[in-house]
């Protein structure tokens, strides 16, 4: 009887832990799926096409870097109960908060241009004018955001984000050569300037400025407490692993196909990637499957980016900024959220050079990385109570990894300019 009672207690305890995890699960997965956005997909595709399987190992090495940096964001949000913009205002003053969130908003608009360009590129593959898909996506995104429920926004975002699993189907359809993959996996020709540039593009895209603002705001809107920190870390870890394996899948798809026959073929937009893949994967694999993955990635990124921008400004200026507020309760927040989408959509619809706009967005993100990560580490050291701060080897590891991300971001900025 005692044994049976012990088994029941263990089973109940295990079920309780699972339920807590499921309740906490979401912000980490959402922000990580958004990290694999249209620009990141194009970068991974170009990396695989030019350098083949030699770009797989960097994607795997970026997993711990992505997790450790974003974990700082999770800890700040859960322990302090305050958003990133609010903490900057409190600790460093309004001027620094204004600088941080104004550049964040510009970066958000730029990122939205990239996401809408991805959506437009997919629709044009099937003969639908890009401006129609951009208008439809803009309206849908605004309606979702105005729903007045963080949980609803999160569920819808994750559903769209999981469309990226189609990239794994495309990977198996590409039939990569295992021997070649193993050989390329162990090779990283960092002495080559072209390889180093694409490596910098991949590293610089690991931490986007809006990711920090979004995840810190998301754990607050979801009502997470310090008791949820362990589960929130697992959520972030799962998201970090999944998003980087998506990047690995894209690298393998292009390495096993384009990289074998036309390694120097330019892949600057969705149409070029799909057209290049079609001879190998067929119309279904080249257009439908790859297109669905791109739509999912672009849609969730557009949602996360716009929310992050509106959250950051609301935090810095102190007005209502929760997705749980109804529109009439947070008019300024929802107005900024809406204008971000409209601005990004108009830039895509009327732009004549989307490729140059995408380059400009990458340069902008690279310029912002030192500011964003600098504030993140400073807040971790100042805003958190002593027992919640990093110590010893973990502290030096996170600071070092942040320095590497900033260095690669600046390298890409200088090289691109």
How are the SSEs placed, and which strands pair?
Elements: H1 2-24, H2 27-35, H3 38-51, H4 56-80, H5 84-92, H6 94-125, H7 130-145, H8 150-161, H9 166-173, H10 178-185, H11 193-204, H12 209-221, H13 229-256, H14 258-261, H15 270-317, H16 331-350, H17 354-382, H18 392-416
Strand percent estimate: under 5%
Distance between the termini: 74 Å
Q: Radius of gyration, Cα only, in angstroms?
A: 21 Å
Shape: globular
- Mind describing the biggest β-sheet? none
Q: Estimate percent helicity.
A: over 70%
Superfamily (CATH H level) name = Amino acid/polyamine transporter I
User: How many beta-strand segments?
Assistant: 0
Which CATH C-level class is it? Answer: Mainly Alpha
Give structural attributes.
single chain, 417 residues, mainly alpha, Amino acid/polyamine transporter I, 18 helices
């Amino acid at each position: 009887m005692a044994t049976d009672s012990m088994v029941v207690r263990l089973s109940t305890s295990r079920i309780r832990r699972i339920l807590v995890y499921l309740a906490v699960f979401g912000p980490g997965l959402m922000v990580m799926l958004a990290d694999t956005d249209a620009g990141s997909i194009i970068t991974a595709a170009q990396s695989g096409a030019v350098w083949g399987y030699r770009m797989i190992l960097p994607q795997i090495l970026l997993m711990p870097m992505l997790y450790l940096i974003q974990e700082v964001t999770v800890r700040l949000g859960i322990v302090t109960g305050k958003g990133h913009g609010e903490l900057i205002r409190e600790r460093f003053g309004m001027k620094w908060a204004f600088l941080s969130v104004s550049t964040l908003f510009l970066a958000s608009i730029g990122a939205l241009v990239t996401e809408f360009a991805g959506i437009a590129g997919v629709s044009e593959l099937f003969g639908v004018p890009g401006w129609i898909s951009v208008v439809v996506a803009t309206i849908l995104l605004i309606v979702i955001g105005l729903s007045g429920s963080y949980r609803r926004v999160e569920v819808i975002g994750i559903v769209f984000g999981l469309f990226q699993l189609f990239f794994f189907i495309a990977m198996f359809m590409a039939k990569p050569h295992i021997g070649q993959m193993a050989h390329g996996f162990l090779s990283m020709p960092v002495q080559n300037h072209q390889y180093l540039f694409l490596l910098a593009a991949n590293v610089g895209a690991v931490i986007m400025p809006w990711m920090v603002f979004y995840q810190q705001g998301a754990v607050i809107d979801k009502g997470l407490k310090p008791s949820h920190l362990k589960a929130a870390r697992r959520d972030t870890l799962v998201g970090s692993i999944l998003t980087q394996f998506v990047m690995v899948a894209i690298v393998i798809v292009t390495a096993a196909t384009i990289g074998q026959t036309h390694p120097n073929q330019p892949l600057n937009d969705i149409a070029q990637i799909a057209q290049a893949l079609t001879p190998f994967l067929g119309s279904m694999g080249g257009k439908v499957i790859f297109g669905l993955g791109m739509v999912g990635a672009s849609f969730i990124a557009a949602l996360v980016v716009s929310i992050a921008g509106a959250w950051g400004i609301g935090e810095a200026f102190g007005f209502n900024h929760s997705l749980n507020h109804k529109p009439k309760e947070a008019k300024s927040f929802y107005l900024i959220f809406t204008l971000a989408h409209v601005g990004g959509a108009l830039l895509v619809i009327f732009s004549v050079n989307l490729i140059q706009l995408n380059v400009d967005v990458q340069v902008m993100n690279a310029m912002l990385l030192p500011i964003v990560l600098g504030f993140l580490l400073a807040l971790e050291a100042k805003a958190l109570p002593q027992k919640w701060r990093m110590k010893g080897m973990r502290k030096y590891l996170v600071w070092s990894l942040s320095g590497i991300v900033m260095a690669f971001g600046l390298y890409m900025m200088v090289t691109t300019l």
